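The methods section describes the discrete structure representation at length, but only in general terms. Each protein is reduced to its one-letter sequence and a matching series of backbone shape codes. I believe one specimen quoted in the main text would settle the matter. An entry of this sort, consisting of the sequence and the corresponding backbone structure tokens, reads as follows.
***
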Amino acid sequence: MTASNPTLHYIFDPLCGWCYAAAPLVEAARALPGLDIALHGGGMMTGGNRQPVTDALRRYVMPHDERIAGLTGQPFGEDYFNGLLRDSGAVFDSEPPTTAILAAQALGGRGLDLLQRIQRAHYVQGLRVADPAVLAALAADIGLDPAAFGAAFAAAQGAETASHIAASRQLLARLGGSGFPTLALERGGACTLLEPSRYLGRPAQWQADLRARIG
């Protein structure tokens, strides 16, 4: 994990509501000069943990989503609450969007841009972000060349995504993180766990404190 610049390691999942809550903090960190951000997709809803959309799932996630909206002001759309969360044909699977983020990262380091677009598509527009065609459209939305993205997505599918998720989970265990999101600041080869939950809804304070840590 050694890097020349200080590095903010971000262990996330594209379908994690609390990662969506932390998105303004990540964006504030991104604005700090001399700070690198390393993305680590943890595969929260992959394999046997994929979740078909059911009434039970909707009842489970909605109180969390409403709390996130209240704490952070992050938007949630009607097409999500009463569209996607009532779409019994949909499956929450974070493997395809993680593959898409790896592909975007390979194309000029655009992974975080695509993560943000995927989160908006999921939580505001209520789109099925496990659908490769939807992911291709979202990649085009952020300006990625469709053919280049398609090739990068195909290359990242399967073994590469599985290896990335496994490495992310190993990192999470080494850091002693408790789930998603986990953020850790690396300086000089040493990592310090941060507490993003303390800063939800306060990105300017988070940015100022992070700046002081790396200054």
Observations:
- The longest helix spans residues 55-72.
